[in-house]
Amino acid sequence: MRARRLAFVVALLGFALTALWPQLGNSSIPSSVGLLYFPQKNFKPGDWVMYRVENRNAEGVKTTTYQRVQAAMEITFRSEPCLWLETGYGPAIDSLDYSAALVSENVYLDEQAEARSRFYLRKLHMETDPDGTPRASEVRTFDPRKPLPDMSDKVPTTRVLGTETLKTPRGPIECQKVEIKRVWQTAQELPDSTIQRRSESTATRWLNPKVVPITGLVREQEHKVQFIKSWPLGKPSKDFPERIVAIDDNVEDLIDYGHGAKPKLSDRMRDTNEPGRSVAP
Questions:
Q1: Over the stretch 81-115, which tens digit does the pLDDT of each residue have?
Q2: Region 217-224 average pLDDT
Q3: Fewer Cβ close by (within 10 Å): the C or N end of the chain?
């Protein structure tokens, strides 16, 4: 029996629940690193939070999924204090699939964490053995001998809109209401052309990190538009218009939160390159 392998795509990490996270390929489980409440650590191991995530695309297709984020356990890895952050994800709240990421808690010291959180990934759950043993691989996202790149231009702009009390399944929660605007742009140089991709996101968030552990998030409404343009080598880019390739509207609502949960994977996690490991073909 072949081991179940979870390939992943490392992408820019942001706060929005589904659209901005890297995903662990075959099971499409997003990492929750971008969900952390970066201004301060607001959890203890065993804390967890559950969300309902509703998405509607430009064609009007609607989907509903559920996301459980858990601060599973803290360890020291290569002299850094780290957190195993577990994610449960799926269309049914009582049968979620799980993955995990090891995150350096030094992320809480970074003023640009909203833009640079991916640099604090240390390990990712990559596969699961036939006997159920989860396996993780080390992630090298930067050269520790060099300072992190300045990404201040990627940090989203934030505007405080006031306070508002939201009704939730856990009762009314008083929130700070903020508006977040973010723009990403990347360019890919090919032998005969350049492809430019751009994304614009406007989100309204209701936050209370004193009540909701790990994320501080009570609700989020996000409108996201993705653009693409390409132009041949030697031609000016201004002569080629952008076109919209995707429009998404997401709503994330808090369902529940709690404390004292046991790890789903992290306490059993082993390295993918463990010496003497036998892997079935």
A1: 999 999 999 999 999 999 999 999 999 999 999 88
A2: 96
A3: C
The whole-angstrom separation of Cα 22 and Cα 32 is 9
Rounded-to-integer distance, Cα 155 and Cα 10, Å? 19
pLDDT at 58: 86
The residue that leads in pLDDT, 159 or 237, is: 159
Written as one letter, the residue type at 202 is: T
With b for 16 or more beta-carbon neighbours within 10 A and e for fewer, the 15-47 pattern comes to bbbbbbbbbbeeeebbbbbbbbbbeebbbebbb
- 280 assigned to some structural domain: no
Average pLDDT over residues 54-67: 93
What is the amino acid identity at position 241?
P
pLDDT given at position 154: 85
In the predicted model, is pLDDT for residue 22 greater than 80? no
Torsion of CA 265, 268, 272, 274, to 10 degrees: 170
In a domain, 281, yes or no: no
Our CA angle for 258, 260, 263, nearest 5°, is 105
Kindly report the three-state secondary structure assignment for every residue of the chain: CCCEECCEECCCCCCCCCCCCCEEHHHCEECCHHHCCCCCCCCCCCCEEEEEEEEEECCCCEEEEEEEEEEEEEEEECCEEEEEEEEEEECCCCCCEEEEEEEEHHHHHCCCHHHHHHHHEEEEEEEECCCCCEEEEECCCCCCCCCCCCCHHHCCEEEEEEEEEECCCCCCEEEEEEEEEEEEEEEEECCCEEEEEEEEEEEEEEECCCCCCCCCEEEEEEEEEEEEEEEECCCCHHHCCCEEEEEEEEEEEEEEEECCCCCCCHHHCEECCCCCCCCCC
Domain count, the chain: 1
Q: For residue 278, is it within any domain? A: no
